[in-house]
Design goal:
- The protein is an all-alpha fold.
- Helices cover about 75% and strands about 0% of the residues.
- Helix 4 (about 85-115) runs antiparallel to helix 7 (about 150-160).
- The longest helix has 30 residues, at about 10-40.
- The mean pLDDT is about 90.
């Protein structure tokens, strides 16, 4: 029934999807944390930049962002992000677009976690002479991260599924292979859909269950 799969490297396509997810997840967490720090910063310019970035990027379709990285950065400005083959450059551009988009959701999740930290703790830290950065990194963010494991898990799951948009700029991940198989294997089209649906379930369901368990284990007891 699944003999047609022998003609295609399904594992390689999903491996590219996994790499996109991992690199983009790490980048989104770092950039999203920086944006969250800007959103709560006492510096007006940083707060304004963070607010503008979040409101702009979060309301822009991901497809537009991904295509813009290819057409704008690479084809127009000639930015190659370290060079390599066109396949490598497309992969890096896709990661950049995914980071730029999902960091806004990481930021808002973290900001909601920051709001759960009692104001008195930050005030006590400042009374002891700690600066804003010290209060944020030593007092606020550790508690905020523990409070938002579940929302961050949802962002990770959405990111995994959104890697399919990378096919728009030719990244050879699962969605691009599925498109090829749909065109070539029209007689077993439902089996093609089933294979890729099952593949994404295997990627997202365990991650969701694991992070849900972690969320309960590290939750801050108020």
């Amino acid at each position: 029934m699944f003999d047609f799969l022998d003609q295609y490297d399904v594992w390689e396509a999903f491996w590219v999807t996994i790499q996109l997810t991992l690199y983009s997840a790490v980048g989104s967490l770092v950039w999203g944390t920086a944006l969250a720090a800007m959103r709560v910063s006492p510096v007006p310019v940083m707060r304004a930049f963070g607010t503008l970035y979040i409101n702009t990027v979060r309301n822009t379709p991901l497809t537009v962002i991904i295509v813009a990285t290819s057409l704008g950065l690479y084809q127009t400005l000639g930015i190659e992000l370290g060079g390599g083959t066109s396949k490598d450059i497309s992969f890096k551009l896709a990661v950049l677009g995914l980071i730029a988009y999902h960091a806004s959701f990481v930021c808002e999740s973290l900001r909601s976690g920051i709001n759960t930290v009692p104001v008195g703790q930050a005030e006590a830290a400042r009374a002891l002479g700690l600066g804003f950065f010290q209060v944020l990194t030593l007092i606020v963010l550790p508690q905020a991260f523990r409070s938002v494991v579940a929302p961050l898990a949802n962002v990770l799951i959405a990111l995994t599924k959104n890697t399919t948009v990378a096919a728009a700029i030719g990244v050879a991940e699962a969605a691009l292979l599925m498109k090829e198989m749909v065109e070539n294997e029209s007689d077993v089209i439902f089996l093609v859909f089933a294979v890729f649906a099952f593949g994404f379930i295997l990627l997202t369901l365990p991650a969701g269950l694991l992070l849900g368990w972690v969320s309960k284990r590290v939750a801050v007891k108020r």
